[in-house]
Every structure is written in C-alpha cells, then in structure tokens.
C-alpha cells in the first residue's frame, strides 16, 4: 500500500517554526514572512509614486488628491489572503517577484475608477517603479520589515526575558552561594549578584540593538542616478532620494552599488547573535544550578512529563530547548552577517536567497526567549542546599585569611610572612571544616581586631559587596 503523500497536504509544515513551535514565533510572520515582504514592497512602490507626484518632481505628472492618496495607501493596508494569492498568480507569469508587485499595483490603478469615480490614477501607471531597479524596492522593504521585527517583536521579548533575570537577581541579592571557578569551589558570591551579571550583559546588547541604524537607498541600477538625471535633469535627485528614504523612517545611504551594502544588517545580526550567546550562557548556568540543587523546578510550571520512564524526574527542558535554538539562531545570524557584506562587483544574487532566512534566524531566537522566560518562571531557589554547600567548603576562606595577613603585615604586624604558602598548605586539595579553619586562624598571631573579624567569618558571610552590586541593575 502506498503511503499518503504529505507534500500534497497544505497544512503540514516542513520546518518546526511553522509547525510545532508556531505559537512562539507567530508575531514574526507579520514582518518576516514572504507575504510581509511583498506587502512592504507594495508599500515602497506606493510611497514612491506618491512622493514623485505630490512633490511635482516629474514635469507633466498629475498631482494626486487626498482621496487618491488614501486609495493607494489602502491598497497596502488591505493586502490580505486574496491579494497574496493574486500576487502569487502574477508572479507565476512574470517569474520575478518585484515585477509582480509592480503589475499588481498597476491593476489597482486601472480599477481605481470603480472606487473613486473620476480619477487620474489610471494615467499614472507608468510612474510606478520609474527609475527603480528591483534592489531599490527590496533594500527598503527589508529595512522596514527587519526594523519592525526587531522593534515590535524581538526587542520586547528580549527585554521581557532579561527583566525576568533582573527580577530574580534583585529578589535573591542576599542569598549566599558557593562560586565555582573552573568548576571548583571558589570565593562565595550571592545568587542575585551572579544573575545580575548576566542581566547586565544582556541589557548592554539590547541597548546596542535599540540604537541600530536601518539604511536604505533608491538610486538606480548601479547607484549613479543615471536614468534619473538623463530623464529629468533639473531635479535634485540626491535630495529626492534622501527625502524619500527618510520619509520611510530609514537612514539614507548615499553611496552604494546596485544594492544597499547590507552592512547595517550584519551589525544588527552580530549584536543579536551576541545577545543569544549571553542568553546561552545563562541557560547553561541555570541548568548547572538545577543539577546542583540550587534551583528546584515546579512541575506545574514546566507543564510537561519529566521522563517517559522515570517519573521522579523534572528535566530542565526549557533551558535545554533554549540552548539548542540559540545555537541554531546564532549559526544563521553568523551566516547572514558573513554573506550579506559581500557582493561580487556591482551585484550578485547571494543576498537574495540568504535574506529569505532572516525570519528563521529570528524565529529560533524568539523560541529560545520564550523557553527561558517559562523556565525561569518555574524555578524555586533552594537556599538551604546552597547554605549546606557553603558549610562544607570552609577552605574558601583561605583567600580572606591570607589577604588579611598581607594587610596586617603591611600595617606592621609581625609573623605575617608567606601567607599564601601557609594557606596553601592548609587548604589545597582538601576539605577544611569550621573548627579547623578557626584553629588555624587562632594560631597565626594576628592583631586582635583582625583575628576577631576572621573568627566571626563563615563562608556564607564572605560575600563582600555582592548584595549591593545588584543595585547597578537599577
């Protein structure tokens, strides 16, 4: 018996972002899907037509009324399922995506009298796409869609996840924890301070991404305004182009080949990848803290079966899922950054297919952010486990004791020689309990006030300014 051919079933997705994980990434569809790109192309074509006619740049071109301008912009606003299907039909004939958008708009100009009655719109058909190469439309469309995906979708999600980390840091600013440099017991910190470090790093990348520039150009086939100046020599075409790009809310790039150079994209994607990698660091650290028992996971918050065969387990799946998706996102973002900054001579098409994966790169990052938020929301801090861990590692006070000895010796106290070596002999490679450490301190001959301060110290108290440092998040 032959198997059912799934390729003929339209609702079956090839990739997980449009299948299993659709809910987490759905907001990106309005910006980074093929349909969203075509709507942006239509928007650019409409605004270029309005720009040229309302500013009287083309001698003899009719001006447009407010009703006609509203009609044109409504073509973009009402671009939905039927229009997507119509455009796809046109593209099957043109075999060119941007040309299909041009023809689609010309159809709407031709049918404008059905809505407006008497109108000049059918007469301006040849102004559509005038002086434009496909990349004049594409670069502006990608800049608009990427900008809106970053500002309206990705950044709010990134801020939300980072704020969740910052909230945990503030809540647990005072909870002492054994640090583990190189995986070994080290000078104690607080859980809040360690989480604050990660939140601080993530916020710095967010600020860089918030400050990103989104560049655009509209200067013709090789960036010279050649067709523009031959056809309408009296216009200030650089100013016309600059005004149009800035009208779209973008930054004008005055020097390009046929394509806008995509350097701004590489910059944004590199910063996003760096954010991803810091978030990956968070995920692996939290995973480790869970394995150490510092965090307990609430099964109800995880919303999952821990193991198919071991019912006692609550697996840290949110953080593992985040790790994997961050790695996929970074791989794509790195490829985008590396590929898009290079174009052979004045133009090649490597960027065309590459840019169609922007949504996939963003999607895997969004999925990771969703998992991190949900994972953090399902954690409870086990301060007792952390306290027990600290109490089993009194040797970490070796740093405090030998530093106090150094300071006392500098202040004139006698018998403070070789503090590091003396502590190394006591602590290296062995566990030291409280009584042994206090006995050692009592035999050092320290000044009374220094000895009293050290004898009162425990690993849980030896956190320095860690609780106060969390305040830097605010």
Quick overview of this protein structure:
The chain has 474 residues and is mostly helical.
Write the layout of secondary structure elements.
Blueprint: H1 22-25, H2 29-32, H3 34-54, H4 66-77, H5 81-94, H6 97-110, H7 112-116, H8 134-171, E1 176-181, E2 184-190, H9 191-210, E3 215-216, H10 226-231, H11 237-247, E4 251-252, H12 263-292, E5 295-297, H13 299-302, H14 317-340, H15 350-355, H16 358-377, E6 379-381, H17 383-391, H18 398-410, H19 419-427, H20 434-442, H21 448-455, H22 466-469
Helix pairs in contact: 3-4, 3-6, 3-8, 5-6, 8-9, 8-16, 9-12, 12-14, 14-16, 18-19
What would you say this structure looks like, in words?
The chain has 474 residues and is mainly alpha-helical. The protein is built from 22 helices and six strands. The strands form three sheets. A two-stranded antiparallel ribbon has the order 1-2. Strands 3-4 form a two-stranded parallel ribbon. A hairpin with a 2-residue loop joins β1 and β2. α9 packs antiparallel against α12 (263-292) and α18 runs antiparallel to α19. The model has no long low-confidence stretch (mean pLDDT 94).
Q: Let me know the CATH homologous superfamily of the largest domain.
A: Fumarase/aspartase (Central domain)
> What is the count of helical runs?
22
Radius of gyration (CA) equals 31 Å
Cα end-to-end separation: 66 Å
CATH fold field value of the largest domain: Fumarase C, Chain A, domain 2
Per CATH, the class of the largest domain reads: Mainly Alpha
Q: Give the count of structural domains.
A: 3
- Which architecture name of the largest domain does CATH use? Up-down Bundle
Structural class: mainly alpha
Largest sheet: 2 strands, antiparallel
SSE pattern, N- to C-terminal: HHHHHHHHEEHEHHEHEHHHHEHHHHHH
In oligomeric terms, what are we looking at?
Answer: single chain
Assign an overall shape.
elongated
Strand order of the biggest β-sheet: 1-2
Please give the number of β-strands: 6
- Our estimate of the beta-strand percent is under 5%
Which parts are unreliable, with pLDDT below 50 for 5 consecutive residues or more?
none
Helical fraction equals 55-70%
Mean pLDDT: 94
Pfam families: ASL_C (PF08328), Lyase_1 (PF00206)
Domain Adenylosuccinate lyase PurB C-terminal: 343-463
Catalytic activity: (2S)-2-[5-amino-1-(5-phospho-beta-D-ribosyl)imidazole-4-carboxamido]succinate = 5-amino-1-(5-phospho-beta-D-ribosyl)imidazole-4-carboxamide + fumarate; N(6)-(1,2-dicarboxyethyl)-AMP = fumarate + AMP
Family: Belongs to the lyase 1 family. Adenylosuccinate lyase subfamily.
């Amino acid at each position: 018996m032959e198997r059912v051919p799934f390729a003929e079933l339209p609702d079956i997705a090839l990739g997980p972002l449009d299948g299993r994980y659709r809910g987490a990434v759905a907001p990106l569809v309005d910006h980074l899907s093929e349909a969203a790109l075509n709507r942006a192309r239509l928007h650019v074509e409409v605004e270029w037509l309005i720009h040229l006619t309302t500013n009287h740049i083309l001698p003899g071109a009719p001006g447009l009324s407010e009703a006609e301008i509203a009609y044109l912009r409504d073509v973009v606003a009402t671009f939905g399922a039927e229009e997507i299907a119509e455009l796809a039909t046109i593209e099957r004939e043109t075999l060119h995506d941007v040309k299909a958008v041009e023809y689609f708009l010309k159809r709407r100009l031709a049918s404008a009298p059905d809505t407006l009655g008497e109108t000049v719109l059918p007469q301006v058909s040849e102004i559509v796409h005038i002086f434009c190469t496909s990349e004049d439309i594409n670069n502006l469309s990608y800049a608009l869609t990427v900008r809106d995906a970053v500002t309206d979708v990705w950044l709010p999600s990134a801020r939300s996840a980072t704020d969740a980390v910052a909230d945990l840091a503030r809540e647990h600013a005072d909870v002492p924890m054994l640090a583990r440099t190189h995986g070994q017991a080290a000078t104690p910190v607080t859980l809040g301070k360690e989480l604050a470090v990660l939140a601080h790093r993530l916020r710095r990348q967010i600020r860089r991404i918030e400050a990103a520039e989104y560049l655009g150009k509209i200067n013709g086939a090789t960036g010279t305004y050649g067709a523009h100046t031959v056809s309408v020599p009296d216009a200030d075409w650089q100013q016309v182009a600059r005004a149009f790009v800035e009208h779209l809310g973008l930054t004008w790039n005055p020097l390009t080949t046929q394509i806008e150079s995509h350097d701004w994209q590489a910059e944004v994607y590199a910063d996003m990848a760096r954010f991803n990698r810091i978030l990956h660091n968070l995920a692996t650290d939290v995973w480790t803290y869970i394995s150490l028992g510092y965090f307990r996971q609430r099964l109800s918050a995880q919303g999952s079966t821990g193991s198919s065969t071991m019912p006692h387990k609550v697996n840290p799946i949110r953080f593992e899922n985040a790790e994997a998706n961050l790695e996929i996102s970074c791989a794509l973002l790195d490829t985008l950054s590396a590929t898009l900054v290079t174009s052979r001579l004045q133009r090649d098409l490597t960027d065309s297919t590459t840019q169609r994966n922007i949504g996939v790169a963003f999607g895997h990052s969004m999925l990771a952010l969703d998992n991190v938020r949900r994972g953090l929301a399902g954690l409870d801090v086990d301060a007792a486990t952390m306290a027990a861990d600290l109490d089993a590692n009194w040797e970490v006070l070796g740093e405090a004791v030998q530093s106090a000895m150094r300071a006392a010796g500098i202040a004139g106290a006698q018998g403070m020689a070789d503090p590091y070596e003396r502590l190394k002999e006591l602590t290296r490679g062995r566990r030291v309990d409280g009584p042994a450490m206090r006995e050692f301190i009592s035999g050092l001959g320290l000044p009374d006030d220094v000895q009293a301060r050290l004898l009162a110290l425990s690993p849980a108290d030896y956190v320095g300014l860690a609780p106060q440092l969390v305040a830097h998040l605010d």
